[in-house]
Amino acid sequence: MQIYVCVKHVPDTAATIKIVGENGYNDTNCKFIVNPYDEYALEEAISMVEKAGNGEVVVVTIGPEAAVSTIRSALAMGAHRAILVKAPQQFLDSSVTAKALKGAIEKDGKAPDFIFGGKGAVDTEGFQTLYRLAAAMDLPVVNEVVAMSVDGQKATVEREIGGGTREVLEMAVPCVMGATKGLNEPRYPKFPDIMKAKKKKIDQMDLSDLGLSADPAPTNVARLEAVPERSGAKIIEGATIRDKVTELVRILKQEEKVL
Fold it and tell me: 233 or 115: whose pLDDT is higher?
């Protein structure tokens, strides 16, 4: 079983990133981690290979040289080896990212049975890369996967479609899947696993080695804005529930201007 897992090097969601100018930022002191949704993808891939008793899980990352530390975290979870395609910027266009992932997988020379990724990245939340990758490789794709099983060359998956409703789909293998919370519980690497990860192979290449370039990109970040500070909580007064609801609607319309 050959499984590739697309892992993104992203800032910790608790980190503070300083905005510089209109579309620049300073992440010098920012901790980077495995994209949280990608951890569900990793866990599923590793568990599948463990259950099958054979196979290989290969992490594929598009990012800066610093992404090696994030890749080591993924390897410590149990992935066998990794591929890093070095890119000059954090916010890489999703079409370029998908082409780079496709190029890296094909260059690796092993036909995938599954390509996993998280449902989206917590830094850009574009939710396009997996679809673009599947289209480029002419493979079926499904996102928001919360349960799955495999029977030969057929995969049966459940996905969230909103309001607590789930959709059940059958897909031919090979395929591309986007994992989300609920699919599994990602493991925490133990110290011996962390030490072993330091010796696992990471192949590195540049975008140019795949015949690609990040410039000019089809889309670019026009502006970055810091999230505004939250205002203090307000207790809504009123003698009855109706009075309180009326006051809430007034606040939303006149003060917050969201209605």
Answer: 115
| Whole-number CA gyration radius for the chain | 21
Identify the pLDDT of residue 124: 81
Q: How far is CA 75 from the centre of its chain?
A: 16
Count CB-CB contacts under 10 A for residue 163: 5
Tokens of 143: 């996102």
Residue that the structure tokens 């992404």 belong to: 67
Which domains are seen in the chain, by residue range?
A: 2-210 (3.40.50.620), 229-259 (no CATH)
Q: What is the pTM of this model?
A: 0.84
In whole angstroms, how far apart are CA 245 and each of 140, 231, 249, 253? 47, 20, 6, 12
Tell me if 108 sits within 8 A of 226, measured CB to CB: no
Please give the helix or strand (H or E) that residue 102 lies within, else none.
Answer: helix 94-108
- Crossing angle of helices 36-52 and 67-77, in 10° steps, is 40
User: Pick from 8, 186, 202, 234: which is nearest to 108 by CA?
Assistant: 202
Whether the bond between 216 and the residue before it is cis, its omega within 30 degrees of 0, is yes
- Please give the pLDDT value at position 89: 75
